[in-house]
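Re: Re: token formats

Sure, here are both.
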Amino acid sequence: MKKKALLIISIIAVCLLAASCNKDRTCRCSVRNSSVVRIIEIDGGTCEDLRVFRYHDDLDTLHVDSLLCTDHTFLIDSIYKTEE
């Protein structure tokens, strides 16, 4: 009886862990030395893994910026609701 209970608890724990790892996240990222905050949606991993932002401008020049990202909500989020 104890083995069955332990097995069921283990299966539930693994399922919860797997479900939490695949959760979509809303990351708030800032380019170093800038006050602009970018909202980036990711479908796996953590926001802290986002380190580089690459983009092309109107002249098709590639820019690479270093990012600082977090998944913590900001006070401004209470004013501007994002769909999640």
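Second one below.
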Amino acid sequence: MSDIRLNNLIFDRGIDTITYARQEAASTMPERGDAPPPDIGTRAQLDLLLQTSSMDSRLDQALRPELKHRDLLLPGRFNEALGNALTQLRDAAQGGEATDQSRVLNRAVRLLSEESNLRDLVQMYRSALYQG
């Protein structure tokens, strides 16, 4: 059989070499804390072209809340915002009189501090699992 070559394709062996044009773009990964949330990750362009919107996807998009500060979806920023909210609620609850608003604020402080304690407990159990 004769040796016919067409742009790195040899008919008796197959593809001779493979070249990649965009190797430098894939070599850098974002930091773990700065990675985008999974629901806003990049999608393949072919999927975007071929995807037809169904009733389920339209309902899902309509029910999804509109976020003004998407960086709150990062775990570190969320914990910081949760701590700030707790301190602001504590300050507001201590400054008021014994009214309905004060009772609501005290209950919110109690629930938010319980949530914070549960998050700390989960973190402790997670670190215990990592240690073995």
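The longest helix spans residues 100-131. The longest strand covers residues 5-6.
- S.
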